[in-house]
Amino acid sequence: MLKDIAKRWNGQLGVEGISLDIPEGSFTALLGPSGCGKSTTLRLLAGLELADEGAILIDGKDVTTSAASDRNLSMVFQSYALFPHLSVAENVVFGLKVRRVPKQERQEKLHRALEITGLLGYENRKPGELSGGQRQRVALARAIVAGQRLCLMDEPLSNLDAKLRNSVRKDIKKLQRDLGITVIYVTHDQTEAMSMADIVVLMKDGHIQQVGTPNDLYSNPNNTFVAEFVGAPPMALIESSVLGGFGEDKTIGIRAENIQIVPKGEGRMSCIVNESEFLGAETLIGLDHEGSRGLCVLKPGLSMVAEGSEININFRDEHLHVFDAAGHRLVR
Ligand SMILES: Nc1ncnc2c1ncn2[C@@H]1O[C@H](COP(=O)(O)OP(=O)(O)OP(=O)(O)O)[C@@H](O)[C@H]1O
Fold it and tell me: Which Pfam families does this one have (predicted)?
C-alpha cells in the first residue's frame, strides 16, 4: 500500500500524492507515457529509491525506509539482468545459492520453475544462446524460485518483437494466476495494460489520473487524458459548440463503436475522410471536422473510403461523455 508518496530530485518532481491500495493476488498495471513516474513508483516500492514523503506498507508492515532486500519481493526487468557467463540453471538459482538454500531444495525449485516457464531442457545454455523471449522466461523463472508473494515487473516485454510479446504476455498472466501472486507491472503500452491487468493505474506528470478496472477506464474515463490514452482507437473529442445543447466550453467524448454512418443530409455532423486503415476484421475510417479530434468510424471487413469524401455521422446522447473546460468528466 502506498500512502501519499512523493519523490523529487533537486526539487524536480518525480511523483507526488501517490496513494494506492493493491489487493493481494491482483495484477496491477502502472500505465502512462514516458516520464510520467511509473518506474519511479515501482522503484520506490522495491526500495531502489527512498520516498521524500509518505509511507509504503507491504503485508501491513511499514517498509518506507527498509532496504530492498528486506521487502520480501522479487523483480523482473526489461533488460532481463541475467549473468551472461552463467547457465540458465545457475542464473535461476543464483539468489537461492546466495541465501544458502540446501542443494536438494534448490534442484526441486529449479525444476518446478523451469517446468512452469517451459524451459526444461535449456538448463545448460548460456543467455547468449537463447532468444529474447526465452531470456525473459529465465528472468521469470528466477523470480518464481525466489518464492515471494509480490513480484514487480518493469516493462519486461519491451525488448521482444510483437509476436513474442503476445505469447510471453499470456505466459506472465497465467503464471500470476496459477501462483496466486501479486504482480505490479509497469508499461507504457495501453493494450498490454488493458489485456493483462485486473487494475490499471494511469499516470501523467507524476500524478495518478485514474485507478480502476480496464473497463472502468475505457467506459468511464475521469478526464480527457484518460479518454485519449486508453482504447484503440482513442476516444474522439468534440467541442460542445459543434453539437450544441451542452453549454459553453465543454468537450464531448465519443467512442468509434458508438458512431454510425448515415446518408448525406442526415445525422449530427458532416465530416471529411482523412484516411482508411484496413485492420483485418474491420476498416478504420479517420474523419476531420473542425472543432474535433480523433473522430473515426469502424466499418466491417475491407471497406476503404476515398480520402476527401464526405461522410455524415450520427450518435446517441447516451454514448456521449461530457468533460468541463479543464478536461475533467462531468457526471451525466
Ligand atoms: N534518478 C533520477 N534523477 C533525476 N530525475 C529522475 C530520476 N529518475 C527519474 N527522474 C525523473 O522523474 C520523472 C519520472 O520518471 P520515471 O522514470 O519514473 O518515468 P516513467 O514513466 O517510468 O518513464 P519511462 O517509461 O520513460 O521509463 C521524469 O521526469 C524523470 O526525468
Answer: ABC_tran, TOBE_2
